[in-house]
Write a sequence for this structure.
């Protein structure tokens, strides 16, 4: 011991060589297994792709703003809507939602990290490489129209468009491998979320004290196990068709193009619920805080979430009413599609009951949450309309369906995501986002959203098919498409304000402190941003509102557990 002490005393602490520099900042982020850094990387990665996908959408709307337009070529238009749809679903919505889950779930259950930190990092880098691989097709892919072409088969990639005959070269292969890698990465993250939720909760946090956000992420992750596997299998089968001469989807050799549709939509429609359940999770946490009331009907909300997870797995073929499934098949999927609205309706009434009688604070997170409630209600109503097979026969593959889908994706997912950004940004950065810029963002986005997607229903009802490059004048679509284009521009301006607010607030925002919203879940019990270890002492949960109980022991409600 004396020798060790002497050796330590001999070190000159003022000598820089005594403290060799640690790894650089870039190296730390590239090799991190900290769930918070991985969550932030997911989020930043998704925001970058959001900008790219937004530019692609703007180009398409400019092309369709007037009839007989030649702003882009037909081939370019096909590539744009293929890349836009693929990017938004696989490389924007999924990464940003799982990024928030990565960041928040360990903090909300009082854990130090995810259950499998290295798997967490591996899943992120696999998903990130999938997105990079998709866009490498612009440089290395080749297709019918020459070298360097992106895939042009649509984000749904229906057979036989993906066959070698209609899609020569490698652009479709890039799409297939990118989606396959993304699916594997998503599955790894889902495994981590389920293991963390069930095995890493702090003392006293029973399942019925677990935050609703963690519940909904757990349900969504369990759905990933079921629905991503068929999509991955379909991608492998497509590769076999293209390179090894199998005929899974080749109708002329005994295969079935409808088989691809089943495989794709077994993933594709539950995927909507995999995306919407985390957004429900955000609303479940934000609405009570800004209503100054506990969530109404916690057990019913848990049951409704699990119900959505089960029922949504049996609705996929309502995308296929026009393929000739027959009366029995159509009837089953009509019934299942209508039934899934029941647990969703329970959630809607519980949110309204939480707001009712509360001391509502209309800060920016609450504004976006209220916007979500209205828009998701409209999206649900048009979804019920399309669940009726005869109505769907008339409007299938029309712009009415495009409008409904974007009401869900933009009106539901994007509005709740914006709410989540404004709500948890102080926790992630230690800085408050600007309320003034946030309200400009909200109102411009609301105006642009309704100009775009309200009026998009009308050309669909007038017979405008989706996926068309241009159209003739005199069909009654011109005015509506022009208004839709104006709305898209307004949304783009609003999004730029949001991006500016993110960056400006990081450097100039007001310091947030650990709990700027006077909230009650455990992520607000630590510093902003949290330390690497999250909690110096593992917290103890006494109810579903553990932080509120610590701050207001006189108001503890034993019934809310």
């Amino acid at each position: 011991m004396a020798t060790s002490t002497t050796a330590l005393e001999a070190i000159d602490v003022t000598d820089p060589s005594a403290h060799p520099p640690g790894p650089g900042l870039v190296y730390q982020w590239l090799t991190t297994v900290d769930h918070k850094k991985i969550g932030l990387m997911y989020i930043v990665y998704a925001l970058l792709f959001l900008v790219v996908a937004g530019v692609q959408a703007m180009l398409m709307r400019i092309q369709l703003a007037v009839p007989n337009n030649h702003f882009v070529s037909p081939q370019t238009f096909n590539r744009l809507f293929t890349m836009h749809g693929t990017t938004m679903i696989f490389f924007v919505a999924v990464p940003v939602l799982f990024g928030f889950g990565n960041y928040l779930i360990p903090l909300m259950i009082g854990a130090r990290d995810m259950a499998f930190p290295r798997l967490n990092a591996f899943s992120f880098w696999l998903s990130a490489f999938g997105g990079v691989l998709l866009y490498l097709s612009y440089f290395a892919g080749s297709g019918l129209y020459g070298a360097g072409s992106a895939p042009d088969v649509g984000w749904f990639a229906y057979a036989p468009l993906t066959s070698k005959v209609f899609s020569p070269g490698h652009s479709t292969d890039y799409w297939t491998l990118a989606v396959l890698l993304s699916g594997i990465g998503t599955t790894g993250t889902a495994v981590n979320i389920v293991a963390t939720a069930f095995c890493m909760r702090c003392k006293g946090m029973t399942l019925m004290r677990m935050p609703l956000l963690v519940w909904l992420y757990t349900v969504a992750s369990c759905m990933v196990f079921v629905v991503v596997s068929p999509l991955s299998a379909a991608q492998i089968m497509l590769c076999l068709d293209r390179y090894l001469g199998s005929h899974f989807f080749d109708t002329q050799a005994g295969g079935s193009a409808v088989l691809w549709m089943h495989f794709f939509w077994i993933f594709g429609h539950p995927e909507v619920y995999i995306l919407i359940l985390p957004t429900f999770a955000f609303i479940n946490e934000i609405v009570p805080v800004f209503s100054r009331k506990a969530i109404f009907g916690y057990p019913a909300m848990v049951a409704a979430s699990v119900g959505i997870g089960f029922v949504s797995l049996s609705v996929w073929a309502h995308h296929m009413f026009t393929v000739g499934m027959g009366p029995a098949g159509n009837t089953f999927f009509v019934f299942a599609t209508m039934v899934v609205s029941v647990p969703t309706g329970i959630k809607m009434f519980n949110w309204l009951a939480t707001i009712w009688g509360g001391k509502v604070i209309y800060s920016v997170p609450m504004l976006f949450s209220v916007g979500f409630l209205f828009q998701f209600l409209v999206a649900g109503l048009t979804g019920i309309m399309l669940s009726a097979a005869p109505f769907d026969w008339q409007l299938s593959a029309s712009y009415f369906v495009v409008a409904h889908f974007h009401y869900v994706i933009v009106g539901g997912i994007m509005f709740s995501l914006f709410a989540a950004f404004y709500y948890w940004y102080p926790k992630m950065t230690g800085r408050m986002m600007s309320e003034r810029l946030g309200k400009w963002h909200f109102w411009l986005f609301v105006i642009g959203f309704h100009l775009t997607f309200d009026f998009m229903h009308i050309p669909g009802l007038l017979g405008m098919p989706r996926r068309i490059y241009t159209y003739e004048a005199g069909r009654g679509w011109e005015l509506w498409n022009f208004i839709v284009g104006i709305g898209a521009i307004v949304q783009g301006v609003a999004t730029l304000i949001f991006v500016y607010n993110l960056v400006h607030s990081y450097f100039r925002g007001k310091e947030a402190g650990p709990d700027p919203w006077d909230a009650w879940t455990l992520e607000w019990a630590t510093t902003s941003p949290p330390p690497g270890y999250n909690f110096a002492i593992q917290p103890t949960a006494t109810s579903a509102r553990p932080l509120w109980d610590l701050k207001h022991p006189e108001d503890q409600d034993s019934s809310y557990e």
In short: The first strand starts at residue 142 and ends at 143. The chain has 17 helices and two strands. The chain has one domain: 37-555.
